[in-house]
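Sample A.
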Amino acid sequence: MHSSSAAQRLQRLRVITSNLLKQLNWQQRLLQFSSNHIGLTIVMICGIYICVQVLFVRAFGIDTTASIARVQAQRQIEQLSDTSSDSIPLIAASLITRIVIPAAEINAPVLTVGMIPTTSTGEQEWNIARYAVGHHNKTGIPGQGENIVFSSYASDYGRIFASLDKAIPGSTITVYEGDVAHNYTVISQQLVKAPHPSMREQINDSAIISPTKGEQVTFITCWPPSGSDRYSSYLVVIAKP
C-alpha cells in the first residue's frame, strides 16, 4: 500500500518536472528568437512609423502648410494696418483668396501687393508678399479676360514658390475668389533673364506683367532659389482657362 502511494507521488513529480522543463525550454526558445530577430523587429517598427508619417504628410501636409501661411499673412495685414505711415508698402486683403497648384504642392493664401520705390534708383518695383502669394493690384481678376499676375518668394518667407518649377504644361491651377473656383491649365513655363537681380525679387519686366488680349494667369518668382546663379532669372509659369 505504501509502495503504491510512493510510486504515484513519484510519477506525479516526474510529470510536474517534465512540464517545467518543457516550459523552460519554450521560454528559452522564445528569448533566443527575440534576441536573434531584434534587429529585424526594430527595422520593421521603424518602417511602419515612416510609412505612417509619409501617409500623414500626403494627407494633411499641404493643408497644414496652407493654414500656417494664412495665419502669417493675416498677421502681415494687421501689422500694416496698425500704422498710418504713407511709406508703408501696399499689402492688403485680396478679392482672390487662395491659389492651389496640386502638381507643385502649393496651397497658399493671396494678398494684394503694389509698387514701392527702390532706395537706390528711385524706380519702382513690385512688393513681394511674405508667407503668401502676391496678386499685383494693377492686373486682372478672374472672369475679366485680362492678365492676372502673381508673385511670391522661392527661398524666403515661407518659400511658397520653391516648387513652382513642378507646374509644367498640362498642370491644373485653381484660383479662388472666396468659395468660387476658377480653373486654369498651364500652357508654358520659361526662364526669363532678370535685368536687375537682387536680394529683393524685382518683378519689373513689362513684357511679363503687361495686359494680354485674353485671360491668363501669370506666376513669377526669381530663379533659381539657391546656388551661384541665384536669382539670375525669372521663372514664369503661364496658364489659361
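Sample B, a different protein:
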Amino acid sequence: MSERVALYLQDAHDLRQGLDYVRYAEERGFEAVWQAESRLVRDAVVPMAAYAAVTESIKVGSGVINNWTRNIGLLASTYLTLDDLAPNRIICGIGAWWDPLARNVGIERRKPLTAMRETVEILRRLLNMERVTFHGEFIHVDGIELDVVHGRREPRNVPIMIGATGNKMMELTGEIADGVVLNYCVPPEYNDRALERLARGAKKSGRTLDDIDRPQLVVCSVDTDREKAMDSTRELLTQYLAQQPHIAKASGVSQDVVDEIQSILGWPATKEQIQQAKHLVSEDLITRITASGTPEEARTKVDEYRRHGCTAPILYPVGGDVKLLIDTFS
C-alpha cells in the first residue's frame, strides 16, 4: 500500500477479540499494531507477545511503556524476548509517564529528560549486545550484558521511539531516538511546533527531520451513523481530559472545562460519571482533535495529520465497528 497506517489497541476490546483485529489488519495491509499501556489497566507486553505469535509480517509496538517501572536489565531482556518471538518486527515505544498516576503509585518523576536519555542509551547498547558499565543519575550497572546462551547472539533490530508531548522531550527525541510517537487528542497544527523541536534535536546528532520517523496516535471513531461515532469519542475525551492533564494542555482545552470535568469524575472514573460529564465536551472539540464521524470524514481528518508531518497514523478505534475502520484505511 502507498500510505503507511497502523492500528492502536488499548482496553476497549476483549484480548482474544484483539487478536482477530490484528490478524485482520495484517491481511488488509496495515504496517503495525501498537498496544497501549497508560492507565492501570492492561500491560503492553503480554498483548504484544500474543499479537506477535498469531501474525507473520505486521510490526508490533508498545504505545507506550514508561521508563520508570522496569529495571533497565529487565527492559532490555523483555524486548530481546519479544524479538525472539517476532524477529525484526518489534518496536519499543517508551514515554516519561504522567502525573497524577505516577505520583499515586509512588514514582517521583524528577529530571524526566535525564532519566529518558539514560534509559534510551543503555537500552540501545544492551540490545546491541554490548557489555555495559554505566553510572548515571538514574541507572547504575556494572558489566552487564544480555546473557544469551541458547539463541541468537547478534544485535537486535528494535527501533526505540519516544512518546513525547512537551517541547523539551520532543527536542531530546530528535537527538537520541529512532522516532517519535506523536500524541493523540491534539489538533493537527500541534505537529508544526513538534516538528520544529524534533528538527532542532536531530541537528544536535548530525541528522535531519527526515531521519526521524513520526507515527502519530489518532483517536478514530468510524460509523455510518455519524452521531453514534461522535458520541463514542465524546465519552473517551471526557475521561482523558480529566485523567491526563498533559493531553488536555496539548489539545488547548480551557482549564475551566478540565476543572469542571474533574469535579464530576472520580479515579478511576465510572461509566455513570462519564455520562454525567460528557456534555462538557463540544462537537467542535471532537472534530478538532480526533478523526470521528463517517468513513469519509475520518479519512479527511487523518489526511490533515499527514499533511502536518505524521508519517504513519496509528488509529485508535473508539466504539463502532473496528473492521469498518480497518477497511476504511486499508
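Observation for Sample B: The chain has two domains: 6-223+290-329, 225-289.
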